[in-house]
Amino acid sequence: MPSSRAVTLRFLEGDPRPDCPLIGRRALIALEASALYAQGIGRSQIRVEPANETLAALYRDRYGFALVSLEGAPAYYVRNIL
Description:
Elements: E1 6-9, H1 26-40, E2 45-48, H2 53-62, E3 66-68, E4 76-80
Parallel strand pairs: 1-2
Antiparallel strand pairs: 2-4, 3-4
C-alpha cells in the first residue's frame, strides 16, 4: 500500500512445509519487490508492520529497518531506499 513517502508491506505469509524451496527467502523477495515498486512510483521508503517480535527482529537486525513509534499511532519499521 503506497503513501506519500512509502510503500507499506502489511502482511507476508509463510509456508509451514519443511521442504518449501522459499524457506528463509520469502521476506527478502517481498522486500526487494516492495523496494522496486516503491522506486518505480517515486517513494523513498518501505515500511513493514511485523506481526510478532521474531519478525520485528528479522526486519531490524537482518534487513536494517528502524522502529518508528509515534504518539497515538501503531508502531512500524521503516527503511529508506535509494
